[in-house]
Design goal:
Strand content: 15-25%
Bound molecules: (5S)-5-amino-3-OXO-hexanoic acid, zinc ion
Order of helices and strands: EHEEEHEHEEEHEHEHEHEEEHH
Helix content: 25-40%
Radius of gyration: 17 Å
Structural class: alpha/beta
């Protein structure tokens, strides 16, 4: 039976801990969340970290310690964000790979991001991609609009296949400024992907459920978490990341595509197993 890759994105760079107390921001909170989400069916964790004041940071020491702690506490594939926060420099975003994660995000273009701009010019995309190839860190191609799918084709055409040999994408839908989180747009994006690519999708905010159901129906994989939505239902805040994973896993089982476990996900994504 085919299975469903579930990625949890528990923190992000945007939500404010003071306003969202359930957001995991310390290392202990992150590892505790990761364990619960793994038990609930996640196989990958997409990681943003915070500093002692709960502000987003790309501090190298903290990132390295985070990778080690997640490996110690879970079998999850550790995917560090190279997107960071909209205020992070390109140099700091490239340096994320110094923490030697299993995987990283790699966004394929610039996009309006609410009132901000999430900047990913072609030169930066190429440099980051080449670094993933050199360091053998498996990239997940983050696609916020259809133009970014065209850039992914250009990238693969110029620089060849990624570390691990397999192209896996994540459609990030419903960002104010990016592609809408609806089924016609999902279908258009999936149709445009490179041959042989696999994909997950996530819907930001109110688009979460439409994208989740659409992705399952179209044979895709799922990303959920408090980076992407802070409401479980109308008027009901998310209490913990694991409830979003539990819901995704339940729907995946109903779709006859149960959650993929981390070892299967490693083979699927071309990520080597951990040394014993
Ligand atoms: N925080 C956003 C500006 C990624 O993680 O690679 C970018 C983002 C994408 O979250
Ligand atoms: Zn992210």
């Amino acid at each position: 039976m085919a299975s469903t890759l579930i990625t949890v994105a528990p923190t992000g760079a945007e939500a404010d801990k003071a306003a969202v107390p359930a957001l995991p921001v310390t290392l202990d909170e992150l590892v505790g969340t990761a364990k619960e989400c793994e038990a609930a069916g996640a196989a990958v964790i997409h990681v943003h970290i915070r500093d002692e004041a709960a502000r987003p940071t790309l501090d190298r020491g903290r990132l390295t310690a985070t990778v080690a702690a997640l490996r110690e506490g879970t079998d999850l594939i550790v995917q560090l964000s190279t997107g960071g926060a909209v205020t992070d420099s390109f140099a700091n975003r490239l340096a994320v790979l110094d923490a030697a994660p299993d995987a990283c995000s790699l966004t394929c273009g610039t996009v309006n991001f609410g009132a901000d701009v999430f900047s990913n010019p072609w030169g930066f995309i190429k440099e980051l991609y080449q670094l993933t190839q050199e360091r053998q860190v498996v990239p997940e191609f983050e696609l916020f609009d259809l133009g970014q799918v065209a850039t992914l084709h250009r990238l693969l055409g110029e620089l060849g296949p990624p570390a691990g040999g397999h192209v896996h994408c994540d459609l990030v839908m419903g960002v104010p400024g990016g592609m809408p989180g609806d089924v016609p747009t999902l279908a258009a994006a999936v149709t445009a992907l490179p041959d042989g690519a696999t994909w997950s999708a996530t819907g930001i905010g109110r688009t979460t459920l439409a994208v989740l159901f659409g992705a399952l129906a179209a044979g895709g994989h799922l990303r959920v978490g408090m980076e992407d939505t802070l409401s479980f239902a109308r008027g009901r805040p998310v209490a913990r990341n694991a409830e979003l994973v539990e819901r995704a896993a339940e729907l995946a089982r109903l779709a006859q595509r149960p959650p993929m476990r981390p070892a299967e996900a490693r083979a699927f994504l071309g990520i080597p197993g951990r040394p014993a």
